Amino acid sequence: MANMISLAVAFVAAWVIYKLLCFGRREDTLPPGPPTIPILGNAHLLPRKFPFIKLAEMAKDYDGIFSLKVTNGTIVVVSNMKTCKELLDDRSAEFSSRPAFAGMDIVTGGRYFATAPALSFMKYMEVFKKVFSPESAPVDFIPALLYVPERWAPWKKMWKETRELQQSLYFNMFKDVIQGQRNGMYGDCFVAKVIEQQEELGLDQETMAYIGGILLDGGAETTASLIQNLVLCVTKFPAALQKAQMEIDSVVGERLPDFRDIKDLPYVQALIRETHRLLPTAPTAVPHASVNDCEYRGYLIPKNTPVLFNIYGICRDPELYDRPDEFWPDRYLLSPDGTRPGLPESMSGVRATLPFGSGKRICPGMHLANANTNLAIMRLLWAFDFAAADGSLSMTPQLNIEKEHCDIQTTFRE
């Protein structure tokens, strides 16, 4: 009997050890990737800060696509334009889903769709961007962490606090619109139009409040980040600032620039596009996910697998761009998409819309965002000079606008 018990214990122990050794191992059907280690998979290779830089380095060993194992989870990373086009353009329906975002689901109550007073909104955005940051809560890539008790999982407390702050902000703004309607205001307001069609659309009040709020969430952060990045670039490269200002002065003169002027300012357009390229506001974009099991180049991408499109790596591909790590707006005056002249069609065609995504999940507010940022940037360059107070500026892109403090002097132009 003792021998039977010992044999059973040995069998169970061997089975547990075998499972642990397999935990984190890459399946043979997945795209290739860095060697894994038991339990962690590739999690030990991913830094907490600037993971997109590490992903771009890894991509050099693979042909446009590779996979990572993060404990028992899988992430597929797309790292060149050719693969991006094939998956997001040619097969957009197969990769039009989104992976589950545990924090976002809890914060919004499942009401995000891609997912006030100024001080309240700024406070909310500071908290909101932390919820959306992979370095603050790795649950989306390590699903088992979702079951960790709250006392050992500080991100769960953060989710609840953000949920309360978001509801307060959204509902206060929504109530303002309702009150404004009663007073004959906001007739052409977007949310007012949604309220008018409430019954037709079958929406409750919370959903209508979130429809309005998501316009702020989706646009305020990225717009502010692009403008901040551009100011950073022209401060570090004053020759580009002077060239843009000379062009604006010659076209606009003493009056304030308006929306119509951007078409007559090719260098300013190039300046904006080069900022998008060198310092993308979302270096890995918002992840897509496979709708079903998908076969690609002989590999199997399982259903609901997160797919990251490393915009940072694509926009610094030396096969696509001359001097890819330099801020050089003139590249967009030499070729329409800024790439090396004479590239074969399969390699070129890096769209100006790439920072806004691609395929069926492209940002629906892209045209509004472009119009508003173009106007804001034209007016900033028309009105101000910028200089680094201490002579040094960091040029590392961030996953939102979590920039280190930059001491930039701003003065009115003479």
From TrEMBL:
<dbReference type="GO" id="GO:0016020">
    <property type="term" value="C:membrane"/>
</dbReference>
<dbReference type="Pfam" id="PF00067">
    <property type="entry name" value="p450"/>
</dbReference>
<dbReference type="GO" id="GO:0005506">
    <property type="term" value="F:iron ion binding"/>
</dbReference>
<protein>
    <recommendedName>
        <fullName>Cytochrome P450</fullName>
    </recommendedName>
</protein>
<dbReference type="InterPro" id="IPR050364">
    <property type="entry name" value="Cytochrome_P450_fung"/>
</dbReference>
<dbReference type="GO" id="GO:0004497">
    <property type="term" value="F:monooxygenase activity"/>
</dbReference>
<feature type="binding site" description="axial binding residue">
    <location>
        <position position="363"/>
    </location>
    <ligand>
        <name>heme</name>
    </ligand>
</feature>
<keyword id="KW-0325">Glycoprotein</keyword>
<keyword id="KW-0812">Transmembrane</keyword>
<keyword id="KW-0479">Metal-binding</keyword>
<comment type="pathway">
    <text>Secondary metabolite biosynthesis.</text>
</comment>
<keyword id="KW-0408">Iron</keyword>
<keyword id="KW-0472">Membrane</keyword>
<dbReference type="InterPro" id="IPR001128">
    <property type="entry name" value="Cyt_P450"/>
</dbReference>
<dbReference type="InterPro" id="IPR002401">
    <property type="entry name" value="Cyt_P450_E_grp-I"/>
</dbReference>
<comment type="similarity">
    <text>Belongs to the cytochrome P450 family.</text>
</comment>
<dbReference type="GO" id="GO:0020037">
    <property type="term" value="F:heme binding"/>
</dbReference>
<dbReference type="InterPro" id="IPR036396">
    <property type="entry name" value="Cyt_P450_sf"/>
</dbReference>
<dbReference type="GO" id="GO:0016705">
    <property type="term" value="F:oxidoreductase activity, acting on paired donors, with incorporation or reduction of molecular oxygen"/>
</dbReference>
<dbReference type="InterPro" id="IPR017972">
    <property type="entry name" value="Cyt_P450_CS"/>
</dbReference>
<keyword id="KW-0560">Oxidoreductase</keyword>
<keyword id="KW-0349">Heme</keyword>
<keyword id="KW-1133">Transmembrane helix</keyword>
<keyword id="KW-0503">Monooxygenase</keyword>
